[in-house]
Amino acid sequence: MPMPAGTIVAENLTKVYRTVVRKPGAAGAVKALIRPDHTDKVAVGGVSLSVAQGELLALLGPNGAGKSTTIKMLCGILTPTAGTVEVNGIVPYRDRIANARRIGVVFGQRTQLWRDLPARTSLEVLRDIYGLTSADFSARIREFNRILELEEFWETRSRQLSLGQRVRCDLAAALLHDPPVVFLDEPTIGMDVVVKEQVREFLRDQVQRRGRSVLLTTHDMTEVARLAERVALIDHGRLVYDGKTAGLHDLAGVTWRVHVTVDGRPGATDVPGMRMTRAEGERLTFVPHQSADLTPRDAVRRLIEHLPVTDIRVEEPDLEDVVRAAFGAGR
Amino acid sequence: MQEAIIPNGGVPSRLRAFLLPWRAARITPLTELTQAARLVPPAAMVATQLALTYWLWHALYAGVRVSAGLDVAQATTYAMLGVLYQQFSTVDRWSNGDTMVQLMTEGTIAFWFLRPVSARRYYLIRAVGDIAYGGGLALVAYLACLGIGAIALPPSWPAAGAALITLVFGLAITYYLHLVLDLICFWSTVNDAAITAVQFATGLLSGAFAPLWFFPGWFRHVSAFLPFQTTLNVPLSLYVGRLPASALGIQLAVQAAWTAGFALFTWWLWRRAAARVTVLGG
Fold first, then answer.
1. Is residue B68 part of a domain?
2. Is A178 helix (H, G, I), strand (E, B) or coil?
3. Which terminal residue of chain A has fewer beta carbons within 10 Å of its beta carbon, N or C?
């Protein structure tokens, strides 16, 4: 049965690069030319993932983990060595033209604008390439302009745009033809916080209001925390986690903590299901026992029952720490 | 829930999707016109080169009436049109960062495979735009040279027609030669040496440096088996009347054979290239 529009399904996606091994020196260079030795490098090894219609999935991983290779196979630039992939029910690398009409792609470090043309002219060229009517084009630009504020700089040549302005134009370029699926490879890299927030608001709007499916790669954990309910972690070409953003804590073993201030030094600090990790005068820190199935709410209640609490605060772990720990756990 | 705009709803929509991408042909002219000051140095160079060519050939013919079957007007016209062809048959996109090798190195070539116009068709559209833009400039220069009497008109209407038809095929063959060089980028991003070699061979063997009629017989015999002389020597020889218009049939057949051969070869190359796009670090 064909997959509906707005879905991404990849099964056992694999990409192996065959490269020539060059030994140092002139003799090595000559040998590589005459009788080269080859080696296989697995960039992506059996990744399976899916994105439902109207969902935003954040694909995370350290540099060289295979995120970009995965996204390039999903959007049809690269042909997988093995495995299957369908985007909007289309095999992207087999039918690139049909696929291109249904996807939008932004590579944060590359632009698809023509660098010596004003940004507006670049968008008009893309309008023609996608065969859009002037009415559709104007409607789209009006819509994007509402959040991205393109009009301020779109008579400027692309090479003179700031990074933030350029990426906003690239976002508009990627969504001009109203694609159900959007791939964003580090779209906010190098941006200042104001523009980042503008781009995040735009993406939220596109997912929630327009129902687009988005696959996002980023190193920015604030972005993940604010945009993605689901994340996939990839490391050394393999998927180490695919689930709710909140569920990452379980994988990583990093959990919430409760900081309490007590009235005087209590005689005993035993609280069922909890372990004290720090005590500085009247300020104590507790974490749940690994075996205890405790929610922060339960913990607060128990702490108040067992200690003379004057102040209490629950600290959620920083997502960056969680992801770092998760990569450690996944290996 | 929104749907992608897919122009396949009926003939007008499909026709629009087919025709509108051709407007991308205006990218080069628009780029050039946004920096009109950049036109001045090439214009000055072409004017100088045309003037030098005119004076050189008139000096060479000072004591001779006919040489290699060409009189002074024919030889000068051939050489000056050769200059125009060499200067305007391609547009330099290097300073705009828009050459294939630059796009490949930067990784932005990936976008050619993410649009609903195939990379092969997009390359053709851009080349047609470049040729139209260069052709427009060449036409202005041609009319100016004609106006001041530096260039002669063809001897007859049939000669003019034959020259024009073979010029179109010549441009097609030039297009394919450049395409082959550009496609090498998919295997090696260091294609400078190949480009320099082919540019030199094209200039020498097409007649752009000097009319081929002045070269030794063995040289012309060898070049007859290569595609280069069909790009320029044939249309110019027909234009100046060194080849009779009645030779059009055989010349067209040779050009058509080269065009078809290159079309097939580049079709195969594109297929291979598209299968091995490995850019943007992946």
1. yes
2. coil
3. N
